[in-house]
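Sequence only, no structure available. Ideas?
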Amino acid sequence: MLDITIKFFDELTTTELYEILQLRSEVFVVEQECIYQDIDGKDAKAIHVLGYKNGVLIAYTRLFKPGDYFENASIGRVLVKASQRMHKYGYDIMNASIQAISEQFNEAIIKISAQKYLESFYNNLGFKTISESYLEDGIPHIAMLKS
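Reply:
I predicted one. Tokens follow.
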């Protein structure tokens, strides 16, 4: 089980922010070989969900209230460090994120833009596909909704 920390942007320490950006770059830019603008100006509006194992950041998401990213509340930048994926920590970080949206925003409807290959993972968390596949930063994605 992960040690979960949930913080608004202005509550993050510089060390936490550095760890978040480093892990996002490791997964999305280096591992997935996707050149894109990760630092997109939206972090300041987000709630950040950090998953630690033995004091090391290994999982992360960011959350948005309705209207800040999509019409509905949303979860993005979902990741687990590659060396830790066999432990199913994706479910821990996502369940903590779903609960945080409920507690922070009083919302049950959540929209995500998911990488297509993770469709069954998100189905297991109650998300349903609501779009055809589309390319986002050169990677096949689908829109999904949990209600």
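The beta strands are 3-8, 47-53, 56-64, 73-80, 110-115, 128-129, 134-136, 139-146.
Hope that gets you unstuck.
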